[in-house]
Write a structure and sequence with these properties.
The complex is a heterodimer. Chain A is mainly alpha-helical. In chain A, 80% of the residues lie in helices and 0% in strands. Chain B has one domain: MetI-like (MetI-like fold, Orthogonal Bundle), CATH 1.10.3720. Chain B has 13 helices and two strands. In chain B, helix 3 packs across helix 7, helix 4 packs antiparallel against helix 7 and helix 7 packs antiparallel against helix 10. Classes of the chains: A mainly alpha, B mainly alpha.
Chain lengths: 262, 291
């Protein structure tokens, strides 16, 4: 019994340490975005200076604009295409379903760098010039699979008789989908959309290959800044990125909890 | 009767087409075709100006065997192997703890593991640069308190690369381990200790084999991405560290040898496929054993 208690303390101390190591770098990064010293890594005093520097940096602002544009459009497309696919794949059996299934897993399984270069090679062979359009195409390609998987997970246990009842009562396919199917799978669709949004906002590797010189997203801007050296502005920009993705995660969790309680 | 059935079939075909064809077309055009092009490009020739010439050759694949490149591949696999091993050793007791904690804390502790998933891995890699750099936090404070006289070389080392990879991929190891430990039937472990097994024996002969599917899944989920995350060796390893991902990036963007870069990418795909097949074989055997 005593031994059991000792091992429990050991386990919980160990796990606590893991959490500390997991979060310490992120917390330090955020704290140092408020450090007034530019050169020294020791704490010198509080400032919001680095944030105001960012707000006047045209490159950063245009990268922000690009990121939001690409994330918004690609999330919209991948959510629509992915939800339709999830519904179709759940409802029907058709030839080539296993092939489609396998194809959907490819972007999840193969290393991102291979996806990135294969899209780069494709766009260059098709003579599509790199920029916002190629970024959107690429982002939809890697996020649509996640949308399909998340929505499909939500559909298991979906009662098909509800749809049939609506049809029997005279609703057409579209009406049935909007009034019956969609409300039931909505939590899954929202979760999928938020996942697509975060994946798009965070993506470095694939964007790196398909963005071209003229069109930088926020993570790519951070990457090029970091390669020049560590500065407090990067801390500030990173903090904003963290805040954005964490709030999306929070919204997603809250929505899931709400729906699961219902 | 026949007629209605026919029209129903027609309707069904129509809705299959509307729901499935967008995603199918998208996947064929932007996943399958690009990969086929990469495969073909691996057999083409680089022109003198970095353009691609349509001359068939096996030279790119032959070049993969040059000692310089073989060294990069071996080193890359080694780094990924070490990363996976460290993740596994660190994550197992951790996942075990979370899986056995009281239900009311479980949601919170689990959430705390998921959160880093949502944050940008580039940003988290950058955080380590602040901490480890020559003018970084560790060195600054150690110098200030007089513990060291010269800054330690922590950043731009292989250790830093492994640290960065482990840090980024750790949650991918924890989640499948957690799932398999959580699903473990405790009565097996109790039976083992009732029959006189020591805790270590019970762990090695009962718990570990029964959670092998989690170990295998976690290892695949860490090993494969670790081969492709080029920005981690780039930022934490400095210019000396060249891994397979850096080589691909370099061939496509700097050296502009797309055919050779394609051959390296195909090699990476083959490595990935081998690991996935190994994983499926493992989990299949596992299923039979339990039955």
């Amino acid at each position: 019994m005593k031994k059991n208690k000792a091992s429990k303390t050991l386990f919980s101390t160990y796990s606590f340490l893991i959490y500390v190591i997991l979060y310490a770098p992120i917390i330090i990064l955020v704290i140092y975005s408020f450090n007034s010293s530019k050169l020294n890594a020791t704490w010198q005093g509080f400032t919001l200076n680095w944030y105001s520097v960012l707000a006047t940096d045209d490159n950063v602002l245009s990268a922000l604009k690009n990121s939001l544009l690409v994330a918004g459009i690609s999330t919209l497309i991948s959510t629509i295409v992915g939800t339709l696919a999830a519904v179709g794949m759940y409802r029907y059996k058709f030839k080539g379903k296993t092939v489609l299934d396998a194809l959907l897993y490819v972007p999840i399984v193969i290393p991102e760098i291979v996806m990135g270069i294969s899209l780069l090679v494709f766009f260059s062979q098709m003579q599509i010039s790199l920029g916002l359009v190629t970024l959107v195409l690429a982002h939809v390609t890697f996020s649509v699979s996640y949308v399909v998987i998340v929505v499909r997970a939500r559909m298991t246990g979906f009662d098909k008789s509800l749809e049939e009842a609506a049809m029997d009562l005279g609703a057409n396919q579209l009406q049935t989908f909007i009034k019956v199917t969609l409300p039931i799978i909505l939590p899954g669709v929202i979760a999928g959309a938020l996942m697509a949004l975060t994946l798009s906002l965070d993506d470095v590797i694939i964007s790196f290959f398909v963005s071209g010189a003229a069109c930088e997203t926020l993570p790519l801007k951070i990457y090029s800044m970091v390669r020049m050296g560590v500065t407090p502005e990067i801390n500030a920009l990173s903090t904003i990125m963290l805040l954005a993705t964490l709030s999306i995660a929070l919204v997603s969790e809250i929505i899931q909890l709400k729906f699961s309680k219902k | 009767m026949k007629k209605t059935k026919k029209s129903k079939n027609k309707k069904q075909t129509a809705s299959i087409v509307t729901t499935i064809s967008p995603v199918l077309l998208w996947m064929i055009i932007l996943v399958a075709i690009p990969l086929v092009i990469v495969f073909i490009m691996g057999f083409l020739t680089r022109g003198i100006y970095g353009q691609v010439e349509y001359i068939f050759t096996f030279q790119n694949y032959a070049d993969l065997l040059k000692p310089m490149y073989v060294q990069i591949f071996v080193y890359s696999l080694w780094i990924s192997f070490i990363t996976t091993l460290i993740c596994l050793v660190l994550a197992y007791p951790f996942a075990y703890f979370i899986a056995n904690v009281k239900a009311k804390y479980k949601v919170l502790l689990f959430m705390l593991i998921i959160i880093p998933f949502w944050t940008n891995s580039l940003v988290r890699t950058y955080a380590w640069m602040i901490i480890l750099g020559t003018n970084g936090i560790i060195n600054s404070y150690l110098l200030q308190f007089g513990v060291i006289k010269e800054p330690l070389k922590l950043l731009y080392t292989n250790g830093a690369v492994i640290l960065g990879l482990v840090y980024t991929l750790f949650p991918f190891m924890v989640l499948p381990l957690y799932a398999s430990i959580e699903g473990l039937d405790k009565s097996y472990v109790e039976a083992a200790s009732d029959l006189g097994a020591s805790p270590l024996q019970a762990f090695l002969r009962v718990t570990l084999p029964l959670t092998m599917s989690g170990v295998a899944a976690g290892s695949v989920l860490v090993f494969i991405p670790s081969l492709g995350l080029f920005f981690i060796p780039d930022l934490l390893g400095g210019s000396k560290t060249m891994l397979i991902s850096n080589l691909i990036q370099n061939q496509f963007l700097t050296a502009r040898n797309w055919p050779f870069g394609s051959a390296v990418s195909i090699l990476l795909i083959i490595i990935t496929i081998i690991f996935i097949i190994l994983y499926f074989n493992k989990s299949k055997n596992k299923g039979l054993e339990v039955m």
